[in-house]
Write a structure and sequence with these properties.
This protein has 159 residues and is mainly alpha-helical. It has five helices and three strands; from the N terminus they run αααβαββα.
Length: 159
């Protein structure tokens, strides 16, 4: 049984012991179960990749929410100012990720961030078309997206 399923089982066991199946109780059980699995990994033989991948998923989520906050403030500020300074454009971003799930995650994270929208992926799946509200420097924007969202998504799925 892999680490994720055991962790899920431990979260439900924690909720059953406390008598509450609320989201907070399940989250607490998942965190406690994660640390219990981490401490007992040498004894249980759970793959260390589970813990590394979990760390990378949490890091991606924190990065995404930080970008969400920053871009929301930037878009809101541009909307309320008397003379907007946005320079919208459609840019081409070469993709390093290759699997369907990685491309899907990158495109959705970009679309969920205010000010950017994934428009299309080319047939050969090597380029992503992105509409950006602030495309003053398209090369810098591509570099930011590749070094941020795409790199972190690739790290989550690497073995």
């Amino acid at each position: 049984m892999n680490g994720f399923l055991i962790n899920l089982l431990l979260a439900f066991a924690w909720a059953a012991m406390t008598g509450s199946f609320g989201l907070g109780t399940l989250a607490t059980g998942a965190v406690l179960g994660f640390f219990a699995l981490w401490l007992s990994a040498p004894l249980t033989g759970i793959d260390r990749l589970y813990f590394l991948r979990s760390y990378r998923v949490v890091r991606l989520a924190v990065y995404f929410f930080w970008e969400l906050l920053l871009s929301s403030v930037r878009v809101a500020w541009d909307v309320i100012r008397p003379f907007p300074k946005n320079k919208p454009a459609i840019i081409e971003m070469p993709l390093s990720v290759k699997s369907d799930i990685e491309i899907l995650l990158v495109t959705n994270l970009i679309s969920l961030t205010p000010g950017t929208l994934s428009v299309d992926v080319t047939q050969d799946r090597s380029t992503l078309m992105v509409h950006a509200m602030f495309a003053d420097d398209p090369d810098a924007l591509v570099a930011e997206l590749k070094n941020g969202m795409e790199r972190m998504v690739a790290e989550v799925f690497e073995k």
